Amino acid sequence: MARKEKPWGGRFKGGTDREVEAFTASIAFDRRLYRHDIEGSIAHARMLARQGILTAREEKAVVAGLKGIRKDFDRGALTFADADEDVHMAVEKELIRRIGDAGAKLHTGRSRNDQVALDLRLYLREEIGHILEGIGGLKEALADLAGREIDTVLPGYTHLQRAQPILLSHYLLAYREMLDRDESRFRECRVRVNVMPLGAGALAGTGIPIDRRVTAELLGFPEMTRNSLDAVSDRDFAAEFLFDCALLMMHLSRFCEDLILWSTEEFRFIEISDAFTTGSSLMPQKKNPDVAELVRGKTGRIYGHLVALLTVLKGLPMTYNRDLQEDKEPVFDAVDTVRASLSIFTRMLGQVTFLRDRMEEAAAGGFSTATDVAEYLVKAGVPFREAHGIAGRIVAFCLEQGKTLEALTLEEYRAFHKDFREDIHEAVTVRRSVGARDIPGGTSGKAVRQRLREIGRRRARTKR
Fold it and tell me: Please, what are the averages of pLDDT over each run of 10 residues along the chain (464 residues)?
């Protein structure tokens, strides 16, 4: 490329090596920022006009030219060329081609360093909104599903061993709690994203009499960056965004792990719709939970993006360094992956059939109500540690005799402690065990219904 075509080429006598141009170009991925780049440029042009740096005629030409470029990109009438260095130069080049010298004035008072920081913040502000919508949709789906499955019992697990019976609705709402935290983190992240860096210039600000407050107001930023050095080198907000994505994907991955296990013949707790499963090219009987597996797999990809960006940032001297070009691909891919995962997971969950009888049968196995035996004795005045030991010996006896807790006679119970009464048989049933956990946050039907009412009231307030 000839030197005269480079907007920064005045100081250079020779041309750039073609391989260097290909290696340093970012247009292949930062082209997706064109709408945000143009939005920022329109605000910048209007501010320059208010300051008397552009004439009213020049402002009108610049704004109309930028809007026309955006429209042409939107409808595919204009495309980026491989020779374009980055999205900023591509837009500026096209603007100058369309309107002439007025377009060459647009970059007054700014640098690509503060421009790209602005573009990325505008992009993430918008995309966080879309992710929050996805989280909200999944939260609603979970609450609705919990309401439909309010009485379904399944085994709760610790160490992947049957522990105590719980309600499926309680299980579903546990993931809703995780999503509440995810939602809160993304909202807080958006506050830190929503800070206007334009005006920081390359690193030291600008001697041109711009008005940053006007630009911030035009772009809807409640705050401006307070240090130009920090403004052009800060990518904390991008790393925070990736961390929030990683936690959200971790929650989806855990959920998927359960669904994958539950869909196996060994569990047989659920049936996932054919629309969200695939078969085997060799084994005709297979029905594989590929969607859930891919969400689980893509979680590792998001973790990688977080570590990649942190690694890029860890050794950078003040201020802007070209290394920061590597911030965009992790962020862009994380946005695409998280939005797609939220969408397809929510749709898949709506087409899962819960095999209730099998779940309740499993919930009754593995001596899952042994804790209720201990608590029965505690209510009779036996110290918990002693009651725990008695219950453990009863389980050992059942194993030796091939019996369940429900099948033991009262005489057999009383051989272990005199305070057992006939109502012990009711106490060790699955339904009674679940109903006994009637505390705020517990798994009883009463507690879960109360939580669903709280969620319903909150949803109603939000929709007003």
Answer: 55 78 86 98 98 98 98 96 89 97 97 98 98 98 98 97 98 98 98 98 98 98 98 98 98 98 97 96 94 98 98 97 97 98 98 98 96 98 98 98 97 97 97 97 97 94 79
Chain centre distance of CA 139: 13
* CB 377 within 8 Å of CB 391: yes
The active-site residue, picked from 130, 184, 273, 280, is 280
The pLDDT assigned to 345 comes to 98
Closest residue by Cα to residue 47 from 212, 228, 208, 202: 212
DSSP H helical segments within 314-415, as ranges?
A: 328-349, 356-363, 370-379, 384-401, 410-414
- Which residues, in sequence order, are CB contacts of 401 under 8 Å at separation 6+? none
Give the DSSP H/E element, type plus range, for residue 42.
helix 34-50
CB-CB contact of 199 with 111 (8 Å): no
CA nearest neighbour of 263 among 296, 232, 236: 296
Contact between residue 27 and residue 86 where contact means Cβ atoms under 8 Å apart:
yes
Which residues have C-beta within 8 Å of that of residue 327, sequence separation ≥ 6?
120, 235, 238, 309, 312
Q: Give me the residues paired with residue 195 across strands.
A: 223
Provide CB contacts within 8 A for 301, sequence distance 6+.
Answer: 333, 337
Q: Cα separations (Å) of 302 from 73, 232, 310? A: 29, 25, 13
Q: Which of 44, 88, 159, 263 is catalytic?
A: 159
How far does CA 21 lie from the centroid of its chain?
35
Q: What is the pLDDT of residue 3?
A: 41
Alpha-carbon torsion, ordered 451, 457, 458, 459, to 10 deg:
110
159 noted as active-site residue: yes
**Distances in whole angstroms, Cα of residue 90 to Cα of each of 20, 200, 445:** 18, 22, 61
The bridge status of strand 223-224 relative to strand 270-272 is unpaired
Q: Measuring CA to CA, how many Å separate 176 from each of 183, 429, 455?
A: 10, 28, 10
pLDDT at 9: 66
Contact in structure between 137 and 344 (CB atoms under 8 Å): no
Backbone torsion region of residue 404, taken as left when φ is above 0, otherwise alpha when ψ lies between -120 and 50, otherwise beta: beta
For helices 445-463 and 112-148, the axis angle rounded to 10 degrees is 140
Does the annotation count 433 as an active-site position?
Answer: no
For residue 160, the model assigns a pLDDT of 96
Q: How do beta strands 223-224 and 195-196 pair?
A: parallel
